[in-house]
Amino acid sequence: MNEWKIYKLSEIGTIIGGATPSTSNPHYYGGQIPWITPKDLSTLNGRFIEKGERNITEKGLSSCSAQLLPQGSILFTSRAPIGYVAIAKNPITTNQGFKSIVPNEKVNNIFLYYLMVYNKSNIEAMGSGTTFKEVSGSTMKKVEIRIPNIDVQKRIASILASLDDKIELNRRINDNLEEQAKALFKSWFVDFEPFKGGKFVDSKLGPIPEGWSIGKVNDVVQILSGFAFKSETFVQSGPYRLITIKGVQDGYLDISGASYISKVPLKMPAYCNLEIGDILLSLTGNVGRVCIVDRPNLLLNQRVAKLQPRRDKQDLLFVYILFRQDTFKNHLLQIARGTAQLNLSPVETREISIILPPANVLLEFSKIGQYLFDKIALSNQETLRLSALRDTLLPKLMSGELSVEEVSFD
Question: Using an 8 Å Cβ cutoff, are 12 and 104 in contact?
C-alpha cells in the first residue's frame, strides 16, 4: 500500500477535449480521420476503438479545435453520458463530448483504461449542468487518483487484460459462428443450394422448391411483447435485472446499467421471466436488433419482444438467423413508424411474408445448425464467468486492497 501515490490526472497525462467541424460544410466529412462521438462508444463491445460512424477530412480537423489523439490514448466521455471509456487503437479524434487522456511516462495506458473504468462513478459525481451533466476540462485535470509504480501497474493491467483478451476472443469466435449460421441459412433458404436438383415452382417471392410454400412470420414464431414495469419497482440491488431496448444490441445482450427488480410482479406474463436461449427483438428506437439471452434472472420490459418459435426450440436457430438477415432487418425498418423515434408493430411484423420450407427440411437444418447454436451458448457462459471474475478483481486491484501476488487463476 505504501508504494501507491496520489496524482492529479493532469500529472499523469494530457487532458484533451474534442470538437465538431461544421456539418454544413461537406468538405469536412468523408475523409480518412476517424471521428468518435459518445454514441460510437455506446455500442462498443470491447476495449479498443478504431473508427466511428463518420470520418472527417484534414480540412475538417483544422477547421475546429479537435486534435488528433495518438494510438493508445484513453477516450473518456464527459457528457451525454459521462463515463464511457475506450482505448484508441490508432490515431483518432473526437467530438466535444470527450475529455480524453494522452498518458505520459508515469502511467501504463492499459492500466489507465481500467483506472478510468474504476473511477467512472466518482468522476460522474463531479459533473455539473442543468440540461445534462458534464465534466469540464478543468475539473477533469483536478481529479485525484492513486497509482502504484509503473511495474505494478503493468502487472495489474496484465491480469485484467488477460481476462478481457479471452472475453473479446470469445466474442470474435461467436461472430464467426454466427456468420457460419448465416451462410448456412442463405445457402438453404435463399439460394436453395441443396435443392437445386429438384423441381421449382413460381411464387410471389420468386421461384421456390416444389413442396415449399409462402407464409407469414406468424406461422413460425410468436412475437410476445414485454411487460410495463413501473419505475417504483426498481431497487438498488435485487435478484432480477430488467432488459430494456438499450440492452438489446445487434447479436449480443448488454445488461450494463440494467435496473434491478426485487420480485416478479403478479400480473407479469410468465414468458417475461426470460430463459437462457430466448431470442429478443427491439421494437423502439434502434428497431430490429436481435440477440440471445445468455444468463438467468432477467425480466422483459415493454418495447422489447420475445421471439417464441411456434413448434419448439428446434426452430430457434432458424428464427434467430431469419431476423438477423440484413434484408429482413431492412424490411423491419421500412414498416416501422414514428417521427421522434421509430416503433415496430408486432402485428405488422407477424404479417411479413416469408418462404416456408417443409417441416422435414427445418428439422434437418436444426440438426446441423444446433451445433453452432450450442457452441455460441457455451462461449457465452464462459464469457459470463470471465466477466464476473474481472468485475470482482478490478476494484480490488485498483484500490490496492488486493495485491498482484494474491491473484491466482488456478
Answer: yes
Residues facing 280 on adjacent strands: 291, 306
Confidence category of residue 150, pLDDT binned at 50, 70, 90: very high
Q: How far apart are CA 207 and CA 145, in angstroms?
A: 66
Cα separation, 31 vs 29, in Å, equals 6
> CA 260, CA 299: separation in Å to the nearest integer?
10
**Phi, psi (rounded to 5 degrees) for 355:** -85, 130
Residue at grid coordinates 440491488: 237
Number of Cβ within a 10 Å radius of residue 132: 10
In 270-399, beta strands by DSSP E = 279-282, 290-292, 298-300, 304-309, 353-356
Longest dimension (CA), the chain: 79
Amino acid at 216: K
Phi, psi (5° rounding) for residue 60?
Answer: -65, -40
Kindly write down the DSSP assignment for every residue of 182-244, as one continuous string: HHHHHHHHTS-GGGTTS-EE--TTS-EETT-EEEEGGGTEEEEE-B---GGGEESS-SEEEE-
Kindly state the DSSP code that residue 301 receives in the 8-state scheme.
B
pTM of the model: 0.86
Q: For residue 387, which amino acid is it?
A: S
pLDDT tens digits, one per residue of 285-321:
989 999 999 899 999 999 999 999 987 677 888 999 9
Task: Give the burial string for 149-171 (b: 16+ CB within 10 Å, else e).
Answer: eeebbbbbbebbbebbeebbebb
Q: How far apart are CA 169 and CA 182, in angstroms?
A: 20
Q: Determine the Cα–Cα distance for residues 143 and 9; give it in Å rounded to an integer.
A: 6
